[in-house]
Give the backbone structure.
Amino acid sequence: MYIPARNTKTTGFTLIELLVVVSLIAIITGAIVPTFSAYIQNQNVRQAQEQIKSDLRTVENRALTGYGNSSGTIQYWGLLIRQDNATSYYYFSSATNDLAACNAASTAEKSNTIPGSVVIRNGVASNWCIFFSLLNGDVSVIKAGYSSGAFPVISVGSQTGTNCGYVSLNSAGLITKTSAVNNTCEAAP
């Protein structure tokens, strides 16, 4: 009776080959994770900029269209930011554009929460408001330490103060966004 010889050639991977592959995967993953985390944080800042820019346009459009002014008492639409490190803000209408109106602003209409761990970082511990006039859409700002000739800038960034972006307005109501890398978030661009 004939018995065939055993095939001494085996297929598969050795333990050393498997360990080398697993080690390479671990090294590559370890190098990618911090980069991916920074990418996610940067995207959250950009998304927050877009959200604020869009909401400012909404408030500006309400002013330009006279939204909610059936009684004729509303002269301004505003956006209220309660304090530094805010994660949301409020829309409101007002008869005046002064500090009293800013502090008494209704908080009935709240924005969506800013994504991720991103906050508004403007170094102001008190309320501040951006007003849009119903008459012509012009912008005015009520903020501690703000000079009336300067353009308002909303700074957004991580809670640690890195990865910042800015949303700025000019007196005519043009809304733009700019990015800044490795700046303190309170610094104007």
